[in-house]
Amino acid sequence: MRSRVVVTLSALLALAAAGVSRAAEFRSVGDKAVVLYDAPSNKAKKRYILSQGYPVEVVVVVEDWIKVRDAKGELTWVESKHLADKRFLLVTVPVAQIRESADDNARVVFEAGENVLLELLEVARGGWLRVRHRDGESGFVKITQVWGA
Questions:
Q1: Is the distance from CB of 28 to CB of 134 less than 8 angstroms?
Q2: How buried is 69 (Cβ within 10 angstroms: 0-12 exposed, 13-18 middle, 19+ buried)?
Q3: Residue 55 Cα to chain centre, angstroms
């Protein structure tokens, strides 16, 4: 009995430690459009539809379903097969300035309006992300101007 308690306690401590050190995991919608549900089942109530590229935060994985959070904080379920590893970010400010380098004084390459999707290319130093617009232009945006990183 005592060894079972120790094993259970050890498992709980490991889970707690993992939760503290776990960074947010993001994925993006891979299909042209995907239905999100209020429970992990195709028979559950349909909540809304997200378009291709929209970033979601992974909250929990249960078999072939993933509970996700969107940029507005809504929690829903989606089948894992509809999410892609290719990452996109959603502009959350009225106008995000995309700069030539990861520097506030760098030249502005282009601007992206609120709710525009940008492909995440790499995480740079000092709170910057290298991104690409669907038109092909690329540069660096501050992490505080986007959601999904």
A1: no
A2: middle
A3: 4
Residue found by looking up tokens 């005592």 in the block:
2
Q: Which residues pair with 130 in a beta bridge?
A: 122, 140
**pLDDT tens string for the chain (149 positions)?**
544 433 334 444 444 444 444 567 999 999 889 999 999 999 999 999 999 999 999 999 999 999 999 999 999 999 999 999 899 999 999 999 999 999 999 999 999 999 999 999 999 989 999 999 999 999 999 999 999 98
Count Cα atoms within 13 angstroms, Cβ side, for 19: 8
Q: What is the DSSP letter of 72?
A: T
Distance (Å, rounded) from C-alpha 99 to C-alpha 7? 52
| Tokens, residue 11 | 């498992």
